Give the backbone structure.
Amino acid sequence: QVQLVESGGGSVQAGGSLRLSCAASGYTVSIHCMGWFRQAPGKEREGVASIDSNSNTRYADSVKGRFTIPQDNAKNTLYLQMNSLKTDHADMYYCAAGRAYCHSLRRKWYDYWGQGTPVTVSP
């Protein structure tokens, strides 16, 4: 019943911007913790940013000051605004839906996952 559909990935040059979208159905984003994760082949999926039911946000050190995680409750959609992109930000990015609160960027707080959208950053 819960479905998360990601879009907005693509290829940009270093210093550019992308905006990833996560459209949720069967799930109300405003009353749950939502997050974005990244994963490279052969590596562990790791947290990038999250926003909980009280609109508290959390960011990984690697993206702090560059990325933001807004959400549009009317559209039931989560976003990841990615600015000042670096080549080491390139990865597959996943939208995740969890509980009402998340105490960290660890994966254990999330129950549902999108299929991922790729981000490529050229030098």
About this structure: The radius of gyration is 13 Å. The longest strand covers residues 18-25. The chain has a mean pLDDT of 96.
